[in-house]
Amino acid sequence: MKLTGTQYKQFTQALLEAFPSQQRLTELVQYKFGKNLNVIAMGADLQEIVFKLIQASQAEGWTDKLIAGARESNPHNPTLFAFAQEFNLAVSMPSELSARGALERLIKKTNSFLDINTWREKLGKIETQVCRVEVIKTNNTKEFGTGFLIAPNVVMTNYHVIEAVDLGNANPSNVILRFDYKQLADGKVLNQGTEYKLLKDDWLIDKSPYTENTLPTPDELDYALLRIDGTPGEDTVSKDDPNSPARGWIELPTQPYEFLPDTSLFIVQHPNAHPLKLAFDTEAIIGINENGTTVKYKTNTESGSSGSPCFDINWNLVALHHSGSPDWNPTYNAGTPITAICVRLQKQKQGLLEDIRSGQAMW
């Protein structure tokens, strides 16, 4: 990876902002690469040291790993996030969101103003909380979906994503929840991600089946809550850097969301099992059905996107994506409003919804 002069300057500024002390930069280089910063880059001040560090990575051919490692150690920094986008090492955003002016036009559609750095920071956090769900069936075929943390050790996805496991056509031990999968624009895999497995016993906390009916009942919401072996939400994003922030999770809303027609919807997803992508439409919402169990929208998805979290423009979780319209009439995608899921959780088991919202691991 050869940086241009402009990229060199941008990367220097991003590292200075994300690692404002020499000690923190020393830890990054040691933890992620097993290298001694003082040997690589001596200098009179931090800016000179950062410059020499990038210079060494360019000469030795590990700049791509330096960008990825820095992102893992400080995934919430918006400047580093923006720089990493150029190399497909952050959530891939449509070009319309890359320019400040375009983002301002998007904001005007909802009559609100957003701080761009705050917006990027929130997306940077969400990026670490969404995983690829991999199910290896007993016939050795593999199916993919998307899931996301809603508590330290609880992932939400679609029921149809893990149906084979529930029916005994796949072993729970052969389900992988893969966070932080990173790939360069040229297809080179930089990070295979962090793998978690389902708890061996009692892995399914709650489920609601899907239906082929046009009007799902309040008990046909196509979701599943999976109990993880471990607490990815409390673990640091970077396995190698103890100073990396905790992954965290996406909190379930406490208030119902009103799906207004022709408003925005953002979906963070693993389409076709690829690294995370962001799809959006500024006039996405088509409408919600009469009993509040399905919302239809125009935001793009593909195979592997099932189980993805859907957000409003302020990154509030509002729906769980589950399907699209039939192939012969591809006019909409559809999801389950999170409000409907919360209502069912409240009725299913006394205290279940409160336990999820408590911020504690569920064992």
Tell me the CATH architecture of the largest domain.
Answer: Beta Barrel
Number of E-type strands: 16
Given the helix and strand composition, which structural class is it? alpha+beta
Distance between the termini: 45 Å
> Are there runs of 5+ residues with pLDDT below 50, and where?
95-109
Rg (CA only): 21 Å
What's the structural domain tally? 2
Secondary structure: helix percent: 25-40%
Counting copies of identical and different chains, the oligomeric state is: single chain
What is the ordering of alpha helices and beta strands? Answer: HHHHHHHHEEEHEEEEEEEEEEEEEHH
What features would you describe in this structure?
This protein is of the alpha+beta class and 363 residues long. It has 2 domains: 5-91; 93-363, Thrombin, subunit H (Beta Barrel), CATH 2.40.10. Helix content is 31%, strand content 24%. The chain has helices at 5-18, 22-33, 37-40, 46-60, 63-73, 78-85, 100-108, 116-129, 159-166, 338-348, 352-357; strands at 130-137, 142-151, 154-157, 170-179, 182-183, 189-191, 194-198, 204-208, 223-229, 265-269, 277-281, 285-288, 295-297, 309-311, 317-324, 333-337. Strands 11-10-14-15-16-13-12 form a 7-stranded antiparallel sheet. Strands 1-2-3-9-7-4 form a 6-stranded antiparallel beta barrel. Strand 12 and strand 13 (295-297) form a beta hairpin. Helix 1 (5-18) crosses helix 4 and helix 6 (78-85) packs across helix 8 (116-129). The longest helix is centred in the N-terminal third of the chain and has 15 residues, at 46-60. It is globular. Residues 95-109 have low confidence and may be disordered.
